[in-house]
Each structure stands twice: as structure tokens, then as C-alpha cells.
Amino acid sequence: MVAQILSESKTEAFAGRMLDILNNSAIALMISVGHRTKLFDVLAELEPSTTQEIADAANLSERYVREWLGAMVTGNIVEYFPENSTYFLPREYAILLTRDAGADNIAVLTQYISILGAVEDQIVECFRQGGGVPYSAYKRFHEVMADDSGQSVVSSLDSILGLVPGLTEKLRNGADVLDVGCGSGRALNKLAQIFPASRFCGYDISAEAITRARNEAQGLSLGNISFQVKDVATLNENSRYDLICTFDAIHDQAKPDVVLRGIFQALRPNGVYLMQDICASSDIAGNLNHPIAPLLYTISCMHCMTVSLAMNGMGLGAMWGEEKALEMLQDAGFSSVEIKQLEHDLQNSYYIVRK
């Protein structure tokens, strides 16, 4: 055996990187706290302010706000002026951290870090024993997914619909629309508001998510929409819909192949299936330059893949990739697939699928 010669400089560089990883992980958690407490939204409206002024404006405890600001200042996110002990969120950062940022709000995504960390023990056991972690183990998951959907999908619906020529006009005139794996129904409720002449239906296996969706629809007084708790692997509907949507839903399914075949069957001959899913390659080599590949593989391992395996499913995971998606769409019977992206969206691809 040839002795391996270690590079001291390489070890030192990696030690520095590990410290950066630890600091950035901690900052991610505190950004999540800042998002949930609306501290970023408050700071974005303030001139340089003291901890007490910030806490009062946010209706929060000053002691906790002060410690949070310590993390934000040392993490180079919030500016600190020692001459008068005031803090300020640069406007250039606020446009990526506040709810007003819409689809550009990256802070909303940091909530997944704490959600995934809460199931680490179960995931470690799955590494040893196999199997998966069920949806029920994830606290706040549907709440955060709805938050994420509101920022990424709902705020971009005009652009998403614009990817399909003639679709907006068809919805204005009246169409039958199904959202498969609709979650808390944010996107579908918004569509029902915009297009009162169309009829909308949402299916999801989670009773919690469907309750959220129905409550929102009721609060908006929508009469052209319904939601149902349903295993979407059992659609069993024939040529019923002009438009079927899935927003970031197929790769989580236990039986994605069965779901896709059901969608093919439920779509009318001249209908459109709009599938939003992760923009990635099925081959890890194709993801080496992906800007958020480590995050997506982590979410896949600790949620998307494992919830499927918990139901004895295929365990595709979020990074199933374009090549696998195209293969499965063809196997389901679809003959026409276009893949499009939105300029601002580095995470998703939009598959325009027809029979």
C-alpha cells in the first residue's frame, strides 16, 4: 500500500470551510426566526434604530431581539452603528429577505432547516434500518409549504400561465382544472379568484392541508372551487379536465408512475398538464454547478425521498431530474413535452405536457 501524503494547506483550507459551514448553518436558523417573527419586514421599514425601538415595532421581547441582532450583525446581514447603538437592514438585503420581495424572498426557504433537523434522529435510523419517515413526523411542514408556495408559485402565477400559449384565455372563458397534490391550496385558491368562470378542484392526501385549503376558500367566498382528501394514486377519472397541475408534488409520491398515468387518463384530449418540479439532472455529474444542489439533495434525503419510502414507495426524491421525468412522462402515455424556466426561478422547471 502506498502511503498517502497529506496536504497541510488543504486540511487548513477545509478547516476554514467547516467553520464557515457552522456559522452559515447557525445564521440560516436565525434567518428563519427573523422571517417567522417578521423582524426583517419591520427592519425594512425602519431607519437605524435601537434594540428597544425594533422590539417595540415588532411587538417582541427586547432581550431576544438583541441577541438575534448579534447573530445578524456578526453574520454581516444587519449593519451596526456603535456610536449610537443602532441597527439597520440594508435595502439591498431587504429585497431578498422580506415578504414584499415575493418570489425573491429567500428567507422563507430557511425554515426547512429547522423542520428537517427535527427529524434527524428518525433519518439516522433509516440509514441503519431502511424504510422512511412519514409526513406526520414533520411539524409545521404544511404551514411552511404554504408559505413557500405563496412566495414562489402564487406570486408568479401570471408568468407561469404565460408559459402555455392560450391558457389564460381558456381559463377566462371557463375550464375544468385539477390540482393534484394541492397541499394547502394557495395556488388553486388564487386561480379561482382570478378566473371565476372556471371550475377548480384540489386533491391531497393530507387532511390537515385540505382543511387549510377549505378554510382559505371559505374566507375568500369562492364558489367555484372544491377540495378533497384523496390518495392521488387513485384518480380513476376519464377525460374530465382541461388543465391539470402539479406544483412540486410528483417526486414525493409513493407511486409517481401510477399518478402520472392517472393524470394522463383524467386529461381531456386537447388538455394541458402543467408540471412544476425541481430543475436538476438525474445524474449527479449534471448538478455539480447547480447553485443550490446541496440544499436540494438534503431536502430530498430528509423529506421527499423518505416520505415516499415510508409508504413503501419508489423514493424518487427531489433530485429525480429532467431525464427521469421525461422517461416517466413518456411511459405514462404523453407524447408532447416542453420544458421551460422562468428567469427569476433557479429552483424549478415547468413541463408543458400534452397527450
UniProtKB/TrEMBL annotation:
Q: Which CDD domains match?
A: AdoMet_MTases (cd02440)
Q: Which InterPro entries match?
A: Methyltranfer_dom (IPR025714), SAM-binding_MTase (IPR053173), SAM-dependent_MTases_sf (IPR029063), WH_DNA-bd_sf (IPR036390), WHD_Rv2258c (IPR048711)
- Please indicate which superkingdom the organism of origin belongs to: Bacteria
- Domain Methyltransferase: from-to ranges: 173-287
Q: S-adenosylmethionine-dependent methyltransferase Rv2258c-like winged HTH domain spans which residues?
A: 25-99
Identify the PANTHER family for this entry. METHYLTRANSFERASE TYPE 11, S-ADENOSYLMETHIONINE-DEPENDENT METHYLTRANSFERASE RV2258C
Put simply, this protein is called Transcriptional regulator
In its UniProt entry, the species of origin is given as Mastigocoleus testarum BC008
